[in-house]
User: Fold this.
Amino acid sequence: ASGKHRIAWCCSTHIADIKKCSMKFVPESDLEYAFVTMMNKLIFGHEIVLKPLLISLRGMNSDETLENIRSLDKKLEENEKQRNVLVELMTKGYLEPAIYNKSNNELLQEAERLRRQKESITRFLNNDFQNLSEVSALLQYATKASMLTGFDGELFKRYVKKVLVYSREEIGFELKCGITLKERLRDK
Assistant:
């Protein structure tokens, strides 16, 4: 080995089937250079990029969302009460089994729908809190940091979720805080 190993990033589709993806590899040095450029832009412009993002995430009306969850909980409780009443009526012989089954199934389907709705709202809320703390951490870093002069692998791991290659000239960094920032690759 000559000791001249070049590390490059390549699309997994391209590796599996060149015909499906014509993108050539992106040399690691270019990717690192693009990352440094992006981080320096964030450090320089954190007031206009990260601060408004943090404010808008904080403003997401979580009170309204929690109110929504409370209302779904009430409906689920009501649903359970109705099912209990059905059981009681059938045990006492006031209700035909066929009618009981039909009504009970309808209530069970409704309960399932309400549970799914509650789950997706909760997931949405958790994502927002996650993004909020990530944006907050990035803003704190950008406020204190001085411009980068070289690539920092720890920093890359801390803030980048994945790298998106759009073309031979442009890549995007999907950050853990939920935003994707595009960066041009340096001209050869």
About this structure: The chain is about 65% helix and 10% strand. The first helix runs from residue 12 to 16. The beta strands are 8-9, 26-27, 160-165, 170-175, 180-184. The chain has a mean pLDDT of 85.
